[in-house]
Design a protein that fits this description.
Two copies of one chain form a homodimer. Chain A has about 325 residues and is α/β, with parallel strands linked by helices. The first copy, chain A, is about 40% helix and about 20% strand. Chain A has a five-stranded mixed beta sheet, with helices on both faces. In chain A, strands 11-10-9-12-13 form a five-stranded mixed beta sheet, with helices on one face. In chain A, a hairpin with a 3-residue loop joins β1 and β2. In chain A, α5 packs across α6 (about 230-255). The longest helix of chain A is centred in the C-terminal third of the chain and has 27 residues, at about 305-330. Chain A is globular, with a radius of gyration of 21 Å. Chains A and B meet through α6 and α8 of A and α6 and α8 of B.
């Protein structure tokens, strides 16, 4: 019998899904475009049909224990996607219920950064840790915070919006309508904006000066920095400075054992890790200095769907823990 | 039988203790000076002797279920006071163990802001809340954060240092050796510094201009503001602006149901609540706007020792909850 959890990661471009067993092995992976359909019903029709095909291939040997979904603005408490700016479906979508109605197995939904944190705890570098934080560096900056071994959801299910901490009041305009949010500086988009700003400020030659703003991206800045481009190197230094200060502040609030950097920008390696580590320690309160590990994510491939599927195993584990307690003390 | 927890609050000036029953009634309260003795042993000798006297007065009808201690730089995990800058005892003091050795009852220790948060949960305005935050506004700014019904201690037991979030890098010098910490702006000391700065900036007459820096305090600024003094009113406006922004950022991380303001400065009422509320909402991320309650502490008198004693009831409650679970599911 193949016992699996289905992990579904709803991204702005693609929806990726996979069948993951308890050991974190991905038995099958596939995807559909997220934004083809304006109506959520049509989108789900396509998604269900694709998943059902794969289920049929496995035959009766497959047991699906549950489904985990990572989605932008996902609310764990309600199983809803709420007002996700970068998706075509407006308002509040009761997605977990819609998926559960079709597959008839327990379905959990949370935002993508929380899914990444649970993935890190179940399959990645945070195994055995009770207090840690995952920062996802993509188009924006997301965060998943684990406290006492449990994800921090907060009162409304929206905790962990570290990317929307105001670090420069009156600063860069943010998609949320405010100004100076951390993610306007620290994210793939933030890197692009910083590179552009530094080109305006300095006179140094740079290969980036031949790229129009709309074609500029973090990958190009990364490549330029690796080639020794001063503007590009300074861009990462500035990004790390902003991130390091923000992490020192986040540590003062939640005192984690480790912070994991996850996502495209984290793959820049030393370019982002070195300045971040330096400025984090420089700004750290004495009692935390040299105590908090800054680490790359331990999830190597299929990270997003591993995280989503881990939601299921985590909930099961909570059930088991509870049963064990009862047995031991009854 | 009088079942009580002993609450001990170790302040910079006085150590106050009381015998508190489960309903939060204080049966007796007394105090000794904290800083009379340079040696911790002498200090404890005096404290034990005073507490023992009161125990003797009650006779055999008294059952002490435990002792809770709130102390600066108190570490819950280790039961220690660690490098407390404003106490005379240097290094790491295993205080909980020393107290437990004498009284032979379970003894718990945490920092004063955490004790305030637990007091708020057991006896105060946070009854029934699972996610909230207490900000203590005294000489400094402390914070106690409750998440999923449990205090957030973090990996090393030092979570909740909101007062040491850097809000103005390179700004005011802080006792921690860094610059720009929130508590250099938002605290009784912060109010004094702001008043001084505004007197330097503006030309308006103010009763505060006749007070030397060393005699200036938050109470005088409060009285002046109540009397319509513009410098004093602007001082509270600025303090609320800094606090409101910081709270909006803290909400983005932990998404609490409510934030309680506790301590001397919170007694300034509208003077501090109105600007704080205004700037908190103004800087709040959309999904949190008009959702988080800003409230005065619900602990009216004996707040510090109530909080310390609540540590004991909280631990007992956890035990009971656990037992109930076992019984229901066995």
């Amino acid at each position: 019998m193949n016992q699996v959890a289905i992990g579904i990661d709803i991204g702005g471009t693609n929806t990726v899904f996979g069948f993951i067993n308890r050991e974190g092995k991905c038995l099958v992976e596939d995807s559909i475009p997220t934004q083809k359909h304006g109506e959520i019903e049509k989108y789900l029709e396509e998604l269900f049909s694709e998943i059902d095909k794969h289920i049929a291939c496995f035959g009766p040997d497959l047991e699906i224990v549950g489904i985990g979904i990572g989605a932008p603005n996902g609310n764990f408490y309600n199983g809803t996607i709420e007002h996700a700016g970068n998706l075509r479906w407006d308002g509040v979508i009761p997605l977990a219920q819609m998926v559960e109605d079709h597959f008839k197995v327990p379905t959990f939904l949370t935002n993508d950064a929380n899914a990444a944190a649970i993935g890190e705890m179940i399959y990645g570098g945070a195994k055995g840790m009770k207090n840690f934080m995952v920062i996802t560096l993509g188009t924006g900056l997301g965060s998943g915070i684990v406290v006492n071994g449990e994800l921090l959801y907060g009162h409304d299910g929206f905790a962990g919006e570290v990317g929307h901490m105001l670090v420069r009041p009156g600063g860069r305009h943010c998609g949320c309508g405010r100004r100076g949010c951390l993610e306007t500086y620290v994210s793939a988009t933030g890197v692009k904006r910083t590179a552009q700003k530094l080109m305006a400020k300095y006179r140094e030659e740079s290969v980036l000066r031949d790229v129009p703003f709309n074609q500029l991206n973090a990958k190009l800045v990364n490549d330029a920095a690796t080639g020794g481009d001063k503007i590009a190197i300074e861009t990462f230094e500035y990004t790390g400075q902003m991130l390091g200060l923000a992490l020192a502040n986040a540590v003062a609030v939640t005192n984690p054992e480790a912070i994991f950097l996850f996502g495209g920008l984290a793959k820049a390696g030393d370019l982002i890790f070195k300045p971040t580590q330096h400025h984090m320690e420089e700004n750290m309160l004495n009692i935390f200095k040299n105590k908090v590990k800054l680490l790359p994510s331990g999830l190597k491939s299929n990270a997003a769907i591993l995280g989503a599927s881990a939601l299921v195993w985590k909930e099961l584990e909570n059930d088991e823990k509870f049963l064990n307690k009862t047995i031991n003390h009854a």
